[in-house]
Amino acid sequence: MGKGANRGEGATECEAPMPTFSWEEIQKHNLPTDKWLVVDRKVYNITKWSRRHPGGHRVIGHYAGEDATYGKKKLKYLPYNHQHEYFFLVGPPLLIPLYFQYQIIMSMIVHKHWVDLAWAISYYARFFVTYIPFYGVLGAILFLNFIRFLESHWFVWVTQMNHIVMDIDREPYRDWFSTQLAATCNVEQSFFNDWFSGHLNFQIEHHLFPTMPRHNFHKVAPLVRSLCAKHGIPYQEKPLLRALQDIIRSLKKSGELWLDAYLHK
C-alpha cells in the first residue's frame, strides 16, 4: 500500500528501491515499542523519534498503525490563519469552569481514585454550603472559578519563570548535575519572594534535592553555588520582576518562531 520511508530511522539508501507494505502489516506496528504511521502514502517508523515529539509521544503515537495524513489537512470551519487571534477569548474562559472541573472528576473515576473523589466531592459540598448563603448559587459558582483563575495564574507564573525562559537544546551527553543547572534558574531570595513562590524561587536546589523540604533550600543554596563556582558551572539567579518579564519575552520568541515556520513551511 505505502512506500517505506525511514523504516530503520537511519540513513536511507537512495539507490535502493523503496519497500512496499500492506495495510495489514502496517497495522501490526501500533505498540509502544513499535510505531509506524503513514503520511501521504509513505510509511514512517517513529518508534524512537516519538519520544522527541514536541507534543509528546502519546499524541503522535495515537496514529501508530494508521494513516496520519489527515492531521496535515486544515479544517475549514474557521479562517485558519487567524484562529490564534481570537481563540484566547473563547478557550481559556471555558477551560476553568467547564473542562478542568469535568476532567478532574472524570480522571478520578476512570483511574478509580475513590478516596480522592470522595475528598473532591466533600470539598465542593463544603464550599457551596459555606458560600451559597452569601452569594447564591450563581455567585458561589463564579466565586469558585475566580479563585481557580487566580490560583492557576499564580501557579503557572511561579513555576514557569524558572523553566520556560531557559535556552536549552537536546543534550544527550551532558551530565545530570549540569543539566539541572542549565535547565532552570533561581529567583533572588527575599521575604516576599520566598512567600510568593512558596520557596520555589530556589528552583535549582528543588531540582537537585526534590525530596528536601522547601523551607530548607536557602540553607543548601550556598553549598550548591560554591560547587558550581569550583567547577565553572553557571549558577543563574535573577530578580523576580526580570524573571516574570523573561516569560513574556520567551513566549514572544516562541510565537515568532512558530509563526515564521508556519508561514514559510
UniProtKB/TrEMBL annotation:
Pfam family, one: FA_desaturase
Keyword Cell cycle applies: no
InterPro entries attached to this UniProt entry: Cyt_B5-like_heme/steroid-bd, Cyt_B5-like_heme/steroid_sf, FA_desaturase_dom, Fatty_acid_desaturase
Bilayer disposition of the protein: Multi-pass membrane protein
UniProt enzyme class: oxidoreductase
Pathway given in the UniProt record: Lipid metabolism; polyunsaturated fatty acid biosynthesis
Enzyme Commission number(s) of this protein: 1.14.19.3
Membrane-spanning intervals of the chain: 86-111, 123-147
SMART domains assigned to the protein according to its UniProt record, in alphabetical order: Cyt-b5
Any one of the GO BP annotations: unsaturated fatty acid biosynthetic process
Keyword Transmembrane helix set for record: yes
PROSITE patterns: CYTOCHROME_B5_2 (PS50255)
Molecular-function GO terms, alphabetical: acyl-CoA 6-desaturase activity
Gene3D superfamilies with a match to the protein in the record: Cytochrome b5-like heme/steroid binding domain
Primary localisation category: endoplasmic reticulum
Keywords: Fatty acid biosynthesis, Fatty acid metabolism, Lipid biosynthesis, Lipid metabolism, Membrane, Oxidoreductase, Transmembrane, Transmembrane helix
Residue ranges annotated for the Cytochrome b5 heme-binding domain, each copy included: 18-69
Catalytic reactions of this protein: (9Z,12Z,15Z)-octadecatrienoyl-CoA + 2 Fe(II)-[cytochrome b5] + O2 + 2 H(+) = (6Z,9Z,12Z,15Z)-octadecatetraenoyl-CoA + 2 Fe(III)-[cytochrome b5] + 2 H2O; (9Z,12Z)-octadecadienoyl-CoA + 2 Fe(II)-[cytochrome b5] + O2 + 2 H(+) = (6Z,9Z,12Z)-octadecatrienoyl-CoA + 2 Fe(III)-[cytochrome b5] + 2 H2O; (9Z,12Z,15Z,18Z,21Z)-tetracosapentaenoyl-CoA + 2 Fe(II)-[cytochrome b5] + O2 + 2 H(+) = (6Z,9Z,12Z,15Z,18Z,21Z)-tetracosahexaenoyl-CoA + 2 Fe(III)-[cytochrome b5] + 2 H2O; (11Z,14Z)-eicosadienoyl-CoA + 2 Fe(II)-[cytochrome b5] + O2 + 2 H(+) = (8Z,11Z,14Z)-eicosatrienoyl-CoA + 2 Fe(III)-[cytochrome b5] + 2 H2O
Any GO CC annotation of this UniProt entry: endoplasmic reticulum membrane
Annotated compartments: Endoplasmic reticulum membrane
Similarity annotation: Belongs to the fatty acid desaturase type 1 family.
Record's protein name: Acyl-CoA 6-desaturase
Organism for this UniProt entry: Molossus molossus (Pallas' mastiff bat)
Phylogenetic classification of the source organism: Eukaryota, Metazoa, Chordata, Craniata, Vertebrata
